[in-house]
């Protein structure tokens, strides 16, 4: 039963695969993949105006295509807007990790980009990373009920183990700062390029961390869809689970982790399909969807 004080939110995270000019075997060009991705995003959020869409590997033209696609057919005003910048220059160059939201539902109170490096205030590559990496942060207030939520989205390096670990530490510092040390609800979405037994995931979910993997907060029978979130394009590397949704919580003991009662109520978790009867892969990653409620 839904309580009147609950505010239901859907969070979707998806590494969409950048629009490459040299596709992998089995990979279709962006012009073929784009309409399928946009349909996925529209369908998955159509019944939840409070939804947030967190994407990774988004180049500037892809960002424009997605924004246009999400807003196609909207009358009166733009239905979806986004926060985020290109990682290479803090403007439009390089990949974005944008957060899409509906401005009729949420007011953006603060937006910040953090570079996951030794110089987090400006475009830079950190430690042993092969690429520049960023964390996108938005502080939002619900227009009707005035509840606030902190949204974070990131894409960690695929090569540098130390950079992933150090990035996780920076992210946790930002969680503490933006949540006002746990007073505000926070979710963290993204492609971590780190499996659950590897450095970044372990750092984010360790006993002293305020974050919990949504996957582990539901029993297997209450999870929908695939286990793995990275599939490739039907060839190449083995599937893995490297895309996550984390939510802040309190711990009752070292053995038991639960979400803070005044923040999040868990509703559902799913990993969506990325290839259907037409055999076109939307991306080499699958979308991860979480249904939660602020209470």
Structural description of this entry:
By secondary structure, the protein is of the alpha+beta class. The chain contains 4 helices and 15 strands. A 7-stranded mixed sheet has the order 3-4-2-1-15-14-10, covered by helices on one side. It has a 6-stranded mixed sheet with strand order 5-6-7-8-11-9, with helices on one face. Strands 12-13 form a two-stranded antiparallel sheet. Helix 1 crosses helix 2. The longest helix is centred in the middle third of the chain and has 18 residues, at 161-178. It is globular, with a radius of gyration of 18 Å. The chain starts with 6 loop residues before the first strand and ends with a strand.
Task: Give the gist of this structure.
With about 300 residues, this protein is α+β, with helices and mostly antiparallel strands. About 20% of the residues lie in helices and about 30% in strands. It contains 4 helices and 15 strands.
Q: State the strand order across the main sheet.
A: 3-4-2-1-15-14-10
The biggest sheet, with number of strands, parallel, antiparallel or mixed sense and barrel status, is: 7 strands, mixed
Structural class: alpha+beta
What would you report as the Rg, rounded to the nearest angstrom?
A: 18 Å
User: Low-confidence parts, pLDDT < 50 over ≥5 residues?
Assistant: 253-260
User: How much strand content do the residues show?
Assistant: 25-35%
Whole-number mean pLDDT: 94
From the N-terminal CA to the C-terminal CA, the straight-line distance is 13 Å
**How many β-strands, per DSSP?**
15
Please tell me what the overall shape is: globular
Count, helices = 4
Helical fraction equals 10-25%
Elements, N to C (H/E): EHEHEEEEEHEHEEEEEEE
